[in-house]
Design goal:
Layout: H1 27-39, E1 43-44, H2 45-48, H3 54-59, E2 64-66, E3 71-72, E4 82-83, H4 94-105, E5 109-113, H5 125-138, E6 143-147, H6 155-163, E7 168-170, H7 180-183, H8 189-201, E8 206-212, H9 218-230, E9 235-240, H10 257-270, E10 274-277, H11 287-292
Parallel strand pairs: 2-5, 3-4, 5-6, 6-7, 7-8, 8-9, 9-10
Antiparallel strand pairs: 1-2
Length: about 290
């Protein structure tokens, strides 16, 4: 195992507003979903990133599968995925196991993501491609959405993923450029925009998302929406950042439902075809329903 990257401990937390409290879902469905995933050694971002929607999604049942293990090579301040300098080995059976599990669950739309794997050739793009192929071979008519890391901006990695034919290509900008040094210290805002632009130029249906409540201003959020319009994003999601562990960045503001509505209306007004904004909106939340729309 590689060296564990321990972030600075954060202790204080703002009081959670009542509209941000969620139920855990049905225990039997939750445990059943986890048992199904563990049987084939699969990971989900729902669990690793401590998503607040896990109760609802696992009870449906649906999940966002996380390929390439549950250990990341980067140290983003917002994310609770475990961070180590040397992550897990690539599981050659993982694409087939995801396809079998998705088929058993009766999924018609499958979302695939991964931790950032800067240690791998092509950043793990080949595992994305293999998983897309396995799903489309196993489930007739399935739609596949990928939520990828930035692959260090490598065009060859992006090409490998796109040539496998995902129905949706998603890459999140996550926050406003000013906050990147703390929120995404090993990423680059312009590089993320370039990935989305390249994917669009290659004919992909593109999607991106960001979190609010990290200290950004309303003007900065609107500027990001304008940038995403410029690179041709078809779908943008905006949700509330919630501190997943005491090691992660603290919430600076709980954004009001009215402000979320204003962001959504602004994005659509400037020309983004689909904007979904709300406290519990996440990049892959209700992804199948959004894609069908």
């Amino acid at each position: 195992m590689g060296q564990l990257i321990k972030p600075k401990v954060r202790t204080s937390r703002k009081r959670l507003p009542s509209y941000l409290r969620r139920t855990l879902g049905h225990p039997r469905m939750l445990h059943g979903m986890k048992k199904t995933l563990r049987r084939r050694g699969l990971h989900t971002v729902c669990e690793s990133a401590r998503c607040p929607n896990i109760g609802e999604c696992f009870s449906m049942p649906t999940a966002t599968f996380m390929i390439l293990g549950d250990v990341c090579t980067r140290r983003c301040g917002f994310c609770s995925v475990e961070k180590r300098s040397t992550p897990l080995d690539v599981d050659a059976d993982e694409p087939a196991n995801i396809a079998l599990t998705a088929k058993e669950l009766g999924l018609g739309h499958v979302v695939i993501t991964s931790p950032t794997r800067d240690d791998l050739p092509l950043g793990g793009a080949e595992q994305f491609a293999s998983t897309i192929t396995a799903l489309k071979e196993a489930i007739p008519g399935v739609s596949v959405e990928v939520l990828t890391p930035d692959f260090m901006g490598d065009p060859a990695s992006l090409r490998v993923v796109l040539e496998a034919g995902p129905d949706v290509f998603n890459h999140n900008v996550e926050t406003v450029p000013r906050l990147y040094p703390e929120v995404r210290p090993q990423a680059d805002y312009l590089r993320s925009l370039d990935i989305l632009l390249r994917a669009k130029e290659n004919g992909a249906f593109t999607k991106s998302g960001l979190m609010v409540g990290l200290g950004e201003s309303g003007e900065e959020v609107r500027d990001v929406l304008a940038d995403l319009l410029c690179v041709g994003c078809d779908v943008v999601t905006i949700g509330q950042y919630l501190q997943p562990t005491r090691y992660n960045l603290e919430v600076q503001e709980y954004v009001s439902p009215e402000a979320f509505k204003e962001y959504e209306e602004y994005g659509r007004r400037i020309g983004i075809p689909n904007v979904y904004s709300g406290p519990f909106v996440r990049s892959s939340y209700n992804a199948g329903a959004l894609f069908r729309r």
